[in-house]
Design brief:
With 134 residues, the chain is of the alpha/beta class. Helices cover 43% and strands 19% of the residues. A 5-stranded parallel β-sheet has the order 2-1-3-4-5, with helices on both faces.
């Protein structure tokens, strides 16, 4: 019997509704992904420390910008400066349309995708995100 090993995506977002929508859309995809949800950057970094020793790092990290405790920009900066994490693809997936946020992400060589307003465009955006995991 063949078992498909799921690739892990670490998703940091404090909006539970967005996370629920993403779970529902991902359930319709054929790829085998395990989504690990955290609600701020501090939890994301703690997860990475724990998982590194157990089963390897995620294939993709998705960050929202506006989160409590440690926001997406601060988390992104730490990830890019940390030797163990700097090569993991990171995508900032946010409601922000701020030019400053876009410049910040570009400076750190990170894709920033603005969360689309409809379910169909959200599904297309999710397809784009999943391509970073391959």
């Amino acid at each position: 019997m063949n078992f498909v090993k799921k690739q892990t995506i670490l998703w940091a977002d404090d909006d539970y509704d967005d996370l629920q929508m993403m779970r529902e859309i991902l359930a319709t995809k054929r790829e085998a992904f395990e989504i690990v949800e955290v609600h701020n950057g501090k939890e994301a970094l703690e997860f990475l420390k724990t998982i590194k020793e157990k089963s390897g790092l995620p294939c993709l990290i998705i960050l929202d910008i506006n989160m409590p405790v440690l926001d997406g920009k601060e988390t992104l900066s730490i990830l890019k400066k940390t030797q163990d994490y700097k090569d993991i693809p990171v995508v900032v997936f946010t409601t922000s349309e701020s030019e400053l946020d876009k410049l910040y992400c570009k400076k750190l060589n990170t894709e920033m995708i603005t969360k689309p307003p409809t379910l169909s465009t959200l599904s297309a955006a999710l397809d784009k995100l999943l391509k970073f995991c391959k």
